[in-house]
Amino acid sequence: MSSPRLWLVGCGNMGGAMLRQWVASGVVAPDRIDIVNRGDRDFPGGVRQARDLPDGDLPDMVMLAMKPQQIDDIAARYGERLAGVPVLISILAGVEEAALAKRFRTGAIVRAMPNLPVGIGKGVVGLYSESADAAARDQVAALMTPLGLVEWIDDDALFNVLTAVAGSGPAFLYRFIDALAAAGATLGLPADQAERLAVATVQGSALLAAAADVSPAILADRVASPGGSTREGLNILDREDALKTLLVETIRASVRRNAEMAAAARQSAVGLGRITLFPFVLSLSHRPSSPRTGTRRTALRQAQGERQGGSSSRNRTKRLSWCRNGANSDCLEGAAMVPLYP
């Protein structure tokens, strides 16, 4: 299979981990990758980095890898340029496919939720799409396979659960490793030695669980001899399902937050559609003659008026219209001009 052409909008820690593993595995050639980011980062040689999307034909796939709260700025800046791209992949937590579809006119949209171990090819990537056909699904799955376990979710309502279990799961496991080491240190082990023991224990146990033909629950019982010390420790964790209850509450909190972010993205999409119904009228009536200095100056005056209580909601709507439909790449937030780069 030939190497796909891929654009990344934003490329932070997670996007960078995915990128490096793609290049290392050979699934994507570095000279087939373009990144638009705030500034150049240390990526494999041959990968192109810039402050704007390249000219020319659209790529096979585009991946949104900026922060979720930047979605409206990115849609305003790049929505038209990305119109018609065959596959749009989003790793934005909490941003549903419908919210993406309102902002980007693309072929298929696929939500992806990777976790940090994708950088060593041992991660998990959860996928969901209503719009992708079999060919698009195969294309995305082939891209994600070198990153680790790839799992498709059939129910959008469960994507937040997958995000909490797999996407946030490494953080919860790191916290457990830290607590296991801290317990050893509390009872007398040197802290650095306790940490090495905890990390190696979790690493070996995870590898064994991955290779076993029985569940982790059965493996735990196999370690614990009746009346032995391991059983005594398990009795603490199992009492009134203490550990399970704690983890259910942990996952539930993450799921709830993902749902809140999804609701905010939906509301933002409604507001964006409402504002951009009238860009031509607003532009004719209120756009300054100078597309850069005039917009900055007038918007700043309006922001100052708002702080003094003299600006109406209509003025705020005008200001938002300039941000999203203006000729320049800047947007006023409060009294500051904020670049729209990821």
TrEMBL record:
The keyword Glycoprotein does not apply. It is found in: Cytoplasm. Its main location: cytoplasm. GO terms for molecular function: pyrroline-5-carboxylate reductase activity. It comes from the Bacteria. Its EC number is 1.5.1.2. Keywords: Amino-acid biosynthesis, Cytoplasm, NADP, Oxidoreductase, Proline biosynthesis. SUPFAM superfamilies: 6-phosphogluconate dehydrogenase C-terminal domain-like, NAD(P)-binding Rossmann-fold domains. GO terms for cellular component: cytoplasm. Residues 157-261 form the Pyrroline-5-carboxylate reductase dimerisation domain. GO terms for biological process: L-proline biosynthetic process. Residues 287-320 are annotated as: Disordered. It holds the Pfam family P5CR_dimer. Pathway: Amino-acid biosynthesis; L-proline biosynthesis; L-proline from L-glutamate 5-semialdehyde: step 1/1. It catalyses: L-proline + NAD(+) = (S)-1-pyrroline-5-carboxylate + NADH + 2 H(+); L-proline + NADP(+) = (S)-1-pyrroline-5-carboxylate + NADPH + 2 H(+). Residues 8-94 form the Pyrroline-5-carboxylate reductase catalytic N-terminal domain. Catalyzes the reduction of 1-pyrroline-5-carboxylate (PCA) to L-proline. Belongs to the pyrroline-5-carboxylate reductase family. NCBIfam families: proC (TIGR00112). This is Pyrroline-5-carboxylate reductase. It comes from Sphingomonas alpina. The lineage of its organism: Bacteria, Pseudomonadati, Pseudomonadota, Alphaproteobacteria, Sphingomonadales. The gene is proC.
